[in-house]
Specification:
- The protein is mainly beta.
- It has one domain: Metal Binding Protein, Guanine Nucleotide Exchange Factor, Chain A.
- The protein is 10% helix and 40% strand.
- It has two helices and ten strands.
- A seven-stranded mixed β-sheet has the order 6-7-8-9-4-3-10, with no helix packed on it. It has a three-stranded antiparallel β-sheet with strand order 1-2-5, with no helix packed on it.
- Strand 7 and strand 8 form a beta hairpin.
């Protein structure tokens, strides 16, 4: 018997509150901790979801975008407070990657953290490709 994943709505945003979003995910969240330069330096914990599970509620006009290396990842920061609460990841360009640290308190029951080794990116990307697919 397969147990269906139960999703709840988590709310979150940037530090100054201009960027606000909601994301459908379980209360028991599995995130990735990447050791690439930008993730390591910013402390980003990755909750990758299908694009249909993410809704930007406010602050689209406050977002600025930064790209580097391949240009595939679309790093979006609040232009006022500098926080990257979500972005479009290189590994899952059909999804959205939410920073666990930017979720409001109260809805996350448990967090499991898995390391993502950027030095073995191709192998690791294949292992997480399913995260941005609905189903």
């Amino acid at each position: 018997m397969t147990t269906a994943t139960h999703f709840i709505v988590h709310h979150g945003g940037c530090h100054c509150g201009r960027v606000r979003f909601e994301v459908d995910a379980p209360a028991h969240i599995a995130v990735l901790e990447c050791n690439c330069s930008i993730c390591r330096m910013s402390g980003f914990l990755h909750l990758i979801v299908p694009a249909a599970h993410f809704r930007l509620l406010s602050g689209a006009d406050a977002l600025i975008e930064y790209t580097f290396n391949t240009g595939r990842a679309k790093h979006r920061f609040c232009r006022y407070c500098g926080i990257k609460s979500f972005y479009i990841p290189r590994s899952n360009p059909d999804g959205v990657d939410v920073n666990l640290h930017c979720l409001d308190p109260g809805t996350v029951v448990r967090v499991d953290i898995t390391r993502f080794d950027d030095t073995r990116r191709a192998e690791n990307e294949a292992a997480i490709a399913h995260l941005s697919r609905s189903g």
